[in-house]
Design brief:
Its main location: secreted. Helix 1 (7-20) packs antiparallel against helix 5 (144-160) and helix 1 (7-20) packs across helix 6. Strand 4 (94-96) and strand 5 (104-106) form a beta hairpin. The chain has eleven helices and 16 strands. By secondary structure, it is an alpha/beta fold. An eight-stranded parallel barrel has the order 1-2-6-7-8-9-10-16, surrounded by seven helices. The protein has a five-stranded antiparallel β-sheet with strand order 12-11-15-14-13, with no helix packed on it. Strands 4-5 form a two-stranded antiparallel sheet.
């Protein structure tokens, strides 16, 4: 163990080791319908954001956040064991202590643990996987020994580093067989987590595209999940779309296809998922179309990067070079067109955030989720902050879930 978080964490590890040795002991609890305890406000924290973007866990506005998803923990394809993606950032980087600016902690995980100690309603969940890691899940779930190693090591990570649960970000199961493998993985994790504490969280980052939704076995997956983080963004983008479009619109056609957040959420509900277990995923970044032929969506683009253009096809919300934006009330989206550089930016703005909060309330969803925490403006800039506007529209921090975390 690279650092010790608390004596209670050690007690949980001891309890886990003792219980897991008894192969016949069953402490299996299915995730049932959760009573409404307030809205969940979830953000993913990307560990690489501490470098170029200089964004740290301590910058997360915890008064408006209930869950932080630590992205990412990865998998050793040879053994199936989980492991850190960046031990320097995760465990060793000297950082400001949330307790005192005159003290230091080592690593983002310890910084988050102290934030939990100061904010007993804040949960921190380890997120395993991420984009481009589907081959690791395929390797683990196709080998019984590796799957056992994965489950055991993941739950030990939860105990050792003071997490409140596990999030699986498998993008994406390609067919019904891989979905069955995901069900098996979640079933094993849920059983092992309940050996330690039945209220540890188990979630997934779930898809929005029709092809990826179609392969999911919703009743089986839902048995084991505390809630679903539904990724209602990246509906279109410069890298794969044929026309410009909104990438996170709430309603209607986005200009490139018929994907919308409301349509996706409706599909999950139609498949039997309780609205309270659905967390509406939203972006804290915009997508960029270069060489856009029109200031409106649904038109051609060339990908030509003119002088003064933003490099890449995404941009943090706080860094969008906007001067006069266009809010589309019909679709619940926003855009800005730079006529000099022929760039069309599509993104959520505060008006969209409040629309999505109203949607959350109307359909009695469990709350909202954002990728990722470094993208929003500082919370002191309340008039532009997407997180602040969404939470305020729901009723402010008093409307958020207040269940205790694990210390």
């Amino acid at each position: 163990m690279l650092h010790k978080l608390s004596s209670k964490v050690s007690d949980r590890i001891h309890k886990y080791n003792s219980l897991s040795q008894d192969k016949n002991q069953q402490a299996f609890q299915i995730a049932g319908k959760d009573d409404c305890k307030g809205y969940k406000s979830c953000v993913y924290f990307s560990n690489w954001s501490v470098y170029g973007r200089k964004h740290f866990a301590i910058d997360i506005p915890v008064e408006f956040v209930t869950h932080v998803f630590y992205a990412f923990i990865t998998i050793d394809a040879n053994t199936g064991n989980v492991k850190f993606t960046d031990e320097w950032c995760d465990l060793q980087l000297p950082l400001e202590s949330p307790v005192s600016s005159n003290q230091k902690v080592t690593g983002s995980i310890q910084q988050l643990f102290q934030m939990k100690q100061l904010n007993r309603h804040l949960k921190v969940v380890m997120s395993i996987g991420g984009w481009g890691t589907e081959h690791l899940f395929q390797a683990v779930t196709s080998d019984h020994a590796k799957l056992d190693n994965f489950i055991n090591s993941a739950v030990k990570f939860v105990c050792e580093y003071g997490f409140d649960g596990i999030d699986i970000d498998w993008e994406y199961p390609r067919n019904t067989h891989e979905c069955k493998q995901l069900v098996k993985l979640l079933s094993g994790l849920k059983q092992k987590l309940n050996l330690v504490s039945p209220d540890y969280l188990l979630t997934i980052a779930s898809p929005g595209g029709d092809e990826n939704i179609e392969v999911l076995d919703f009743p089986e997956l839902d048995k084991y999940l505390s809630f679903w983080n539904v990724m209602c963004y990246d509906f279109c983008g410069e890298g794969w779309s044929t026309r410009t479009g909104y990438h996170s619109n709430l309603y209607g056609n986005n200009g490139d296809n018929n994907l919308s957040a409301s349509n996706i959420i409706e599909k999950y509900i139609q498949h039997g998922v309780s609205p309270q277990k659905l967390i509406l995923g939203m972006p804290l970044y915009g997508r960029v179309f270069h060489g856009a032929s029109s200031p409106t969506v649904g038109h051609s683009f060339t990908k030509e990067i003119l002088p003064g253009s933003v490099n890449g096809d995404t941009c943090d919300y706080k860094s969008l070079p906007i001067s006069q934006e266009s809010f589309d009330e019909k679709t619940g989206s926003c855009s800005y067109y730079d006529s000099q550089t022929k760039q069309l930016f599509v993104y959520d703005n505060p008006q969209v955030a409040r629309m999505k909060a109203d949607f959350t309330s109307k359909y009695k969803l469990g709350g909202g989720m954002w990728w990722d925490s470094c993208g929003d403006v500082a919370i002191k800039e309340k008039e532009r902050s997407l997180i602040y506007n969404y939470i305020q529209q729901l009723g402010g921090s008093a409307a958020l879930e207040k269940t205790p975390n694990h210390i």
